[in-house]
Amino acid sequence: MSPKQSTRHDVLIIGAGLSGINVACRLPEGTDYAVIEARSRIGGTWDLFRYPGVRSDSDVYTLSYPFRPWKGRDSIADGADLRDYIEDTAVEKGIVDKVTFNTRATAADWDSAAGEWTVTCVRDGVEVAYAAKYLVCSTGYYDYDSPHAPVFDGAEDFRGCVVHPQFWPEDLDYTGKNVVVIGSGATAITLVPSMAEDAARVTMLQRTPTYVLSQPRVDKFANALRRTLPGKLSNTLVRAKNNSQQWALVVVSGRFPGVVKRLLLAGVAAGTGSKHTAQEHFTPPYNPWEQRLCIVPDSDLFHAIKDGSAEVVTGHIDCFVPEGVKLSDGSVIPADIIVTATGLRIELLGGVTLSLDGEPVDFSQHYTWYGTMFSGIPNFSAVIGYINHSWTIRADMTAKMIAKILRRMRETGSTMVTPIAPSGLGEGRPYMDMQSGYLARAAAAMPRATQKYPWSVQQNVLVDTWNTGRASLDRDLEWR
């Protein structure tokens, strides 16, 4: 039975999170569009994650939208505040009325004869369909339903509770309990100091250390600037400052990794009061920013380690045992609760199956065009933010590029635009190219990128801004 046709629109945006609302805000005035969202609320990532202490892992001045200044006090913002900010933006811009919730897109097929996408969705158990001339996926890049969850031997023998941060139980009481958090990424580093406030003891059990940098939760300079200058001007200056600082750290890390490594370890030693802790548990086997660097606000993780409410153990898990976690050296870490902060699983396009005239699309055979469109796929964009910088800096570039393409279509009366990759581009590389485990696991399935524009995403804010901002819509694009 064919799904019921719901509506037709010029533009359909899948996802009402940070990126989807960004795209909707940037659309040319008068665009007929709709937004569909699988969840029951606006917010995306910031609605999904509700574990203790969940917060931004970038400063909020660059993570927020450049056209709507952040007015909160903190520079490292709580997840709930970020969700409210996204929703308030949607309300203020009149976008919330365009969003249909509890509608999960499952497939999208381009019909060349009709010159439109048919998007199949499930809403409250019923199949519905949308038709759109242009399709935008703003679904992020990881699986909301199935995180990376390694199987641990003996898990069935553990007498306590095992939880994953992606599915945090609202009624979980860890007061006075021994907690083991497995992982060393941003989620684990956020959970440990937050849970340590009430738990008897929290142990962060990691296989491989991560570089960690402390930053002030409150940006005093930004708050002072906002008190003395108009909102838009102060926001522009603060974003420029923070953007420059973040990117400078990435550049310096690439050119002088030894220097940055020593500075980071010195910061850990000062925060924890122990050079041994810094060397033993915060010295990864890679250089700074070869994987994402984790931020801790006001040294909260270091303080928890220093006062003894938390500890870090680096080792390999042998198995779970009734009383906790047994390591390969035979030692056992006692636990009442085990939190498996073991990472994300990549899922491109939010699980939507893409096809062209019924033929499935293998994304690994397509090249990204300015990080916005993909070779051989007409009237389609996907929004992916930075993985080595603030997400929104890159996502907003893409949103503005989508708007530029749509304006050109309107001005010229074109109904179809398709990136055409020239011959000889080579094998390319994954367009999200970093050594992080969750990205490496999915590298073979990703669209490809080269070192040169327009078939590139550099993960370099200066290069990307220069090239994307000056992109020619006549280069390697076929208009009809």
UniProtKB/TrEMBL annotation:
- Classification via Gene3D superfamilies: FAD/NAD(P)-binding domain (3.50.50.60)
Q: Report the domain of life of the source organism.
A: Bacteria
Entry cofactors: FAD
Q: Which UniProt keywords are present, listed alphabetically?
A: FAD, Flavoprotein, Monooxygenase, Oxidoreductase
One Pfam entry for this protein is NAD_binding_8
Entry's family note: Belongs to the FAD-binding monooxygenase family.
What name does UniProt use for this protein?
NAD(P)/FAD-dependent oxidoreductase
